[in-house]
Design the sequence.
């Protein structure tokens, strides 16, 4: 005589659970961060968890931004002959980053970060420089060391 079909089904279910449970535990352990983020987002959306206000990003003093712009502007103007294209592009990207910070500090709208390198970005750079100057920030590079 065989086992009743219900105890056979129960045995198979228990065996399947015993095989799947360790895999499930391992998956949860590997994805715990994502599960926590989704859970927090759902709880906040349902207003069961209060949202804390986003901290305001630390602002760099405008004097420091102006000094950085003048330093980078001088470095771009005085790039020695034969310097690699990568170094020149790096200086230009650094200048654009600081110019973007100046525009943010002076509330000048810009799209420097969205534009790829090229003519449109160069034109946007000139427009932002002009708007930043109009807002009262002096961008003139320092005098050359070899000039009186």
Sequence:
């Amino acid at each position: 005589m065989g086992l009743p079909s219900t105890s056979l089904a129960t045995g198979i279910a228990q065996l399947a659970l015993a095989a799947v449970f360790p895999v499930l535990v391992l998956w949860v352990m590997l994805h715990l961060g994502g599960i926590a983020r989704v859970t927090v987002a759902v709880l906040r959306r349902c207003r069961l968890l209060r949202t804390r206000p986003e901290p305001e990003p630390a602002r760099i003093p405008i004097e420091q931004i102006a000094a950085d712009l003048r330093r980078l502007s001088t470095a771009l103007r005085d790039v020695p002959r034969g310097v690699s294209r990568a170094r020149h592009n790096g200086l230009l990207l650094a200048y654009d980053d600081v110019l973007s910070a100046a525009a943010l500090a002076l509330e000048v709208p810009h799209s420097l970060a969205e534009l790829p390198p090229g003519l449109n970005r160069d034109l946007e750079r000139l427009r932002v420089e002009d708007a930043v100057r109009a807002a009262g920030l002096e961008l003139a590079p320092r005098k050359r060391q070899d000039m009186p």
Notes: DSSP finds five helices and no strands in the chain. The mean pLDDT is 86. Residues 5-45 form one domain. The two ends are 111 Å apart (CA to CA).
